[in-house]
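Notes from the 1:1 (GR / supervisor)

We went over the backlog. Supervisor wanted to see one worked example end to end before approving the batch request, so GR pasted a single chain during the call. The sequence is below; no edits were made to it. Supervisor asked that the structure be written out right there so they could see what the output format looks like.
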Amino acid sequence: MKGSNLKPFRLSRRAVLRGAGGVAIGLPFLEAMRPFGMRRSQAAANTPPKRFIVFFSPDGNIRENWTPTGTETSFTLSRILAPLAENQQSVVVLDGVENQVGGYSAHPGDDHMKGMGTMLTGIGLLPGNTQGGAGDPAGLAGGISVDQQIASSIGAGTKFRSLELGVQSGSAGTVWGYTAYAGANQPLPPDDNPASVWNRVFSAFGGVDPALLRQQAERKSVLDAVMQSYTKLNPRLGALDKAKLDEHLGNIRDLETRLTATGTSGGACMKPTMPATIDYKANANFPAVGQLQMDLLVMAMACDLTRVGTIQWEQSVGDVRFTWVDPTITRGHHDMSHDGDSVTATLELLTKINTWYAQQFNYLLNSLKNAKEADGSSMLDNTLLIWCNELSRGNVHSHDHMPFVLAGGAGGALRTGRFLSYSKSVPHNNLLVSCMNMMGVSGTTFGDPAFCTGPLANL
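Structure output shown during the call:
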């Protein structure tokens, strides 16, 4: 610029905002961190990245209360999916997609195990020593999951190639507890603890630094401690970097307030060796933990710390008691899902549980919709989400008519506001190929090619 005395300015990718007492906050990736010759133009910098999110809920569904009615573009959402009404034009509901590899009887494992291990991998389980309720003992999944295939393409330039978050998802190392796999027999365990996620992703909450622990113990904000550093840095940044950093710090302030809130037993509490956390194992805290995990994932993506993530609610055969959905629920989710169709009272409660999960999915969609990109679009416009389950119906352990919902624009790659009903069952591996393709990853097959015929038609 004519008359400008500004010198070229570059930040290290490891740069942080530092404050008194050793407190530090990591920065999102900024244009000022790129080498001078590699900096993008304002137009290029404003082009949002694509992102991919897996949302998992277990134990099957109630198809008669899940399936929409109507045509491809003029349809009425079912009772279970009704919470998505405000975002109906941002979703694609699928019916008639079958997890054929999960239903293949020659593979080891019971139906829950096979459904879980093949859900994102499209390939049968390995032999192993875990005995399910039926079938031969089995091990873990036999191949990479589609989220990781996508992450290998779009996640290489971010701090975290992917994030795996859970809500009471643990399963002692068995196939029931994993959605994501880096490869055969290489599960990526979901982190159930929001405080752990916070420390790992949005550090400088180092966990062992006495200054940081003291700061949290005294209920002081780490943001307040670094404001002087922020004030010095801010004038040296471009408009895009300023906006990104301000949003980053605003999101940290919101999460910091919630994570350090005091509460009664079973709510948020302080642990002496780490920042304040919530009792993420308590049944009553299931909704609050899930919401925190979704917020953390959206925040991580907004800061471009990752572009691929999974939210795993429960595990396959999860037995959370959904007392907040209906106070008459006294049994675990998996146990209830085994009741026959003649037990209409249980079908009603399972319908309510799955409706609650639709509400959580809608919360995630709204969080992405409300987060604006540099070009004025929303994060939802540039994200592809897939809501999946390891079973179709719990009491018969079926894998046909799987309850898949896609959402988000995937940067223009997904035509939304549609209900696609496939009259002839198609393998869900085809859906995985389409997810891969919509995220810019080429290929015509995924998982076991014996159960894949190419991308899903009309998607």
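Supervisor's comment: The first strand starts at residue 16 and ends at 18.
Batch request approved.
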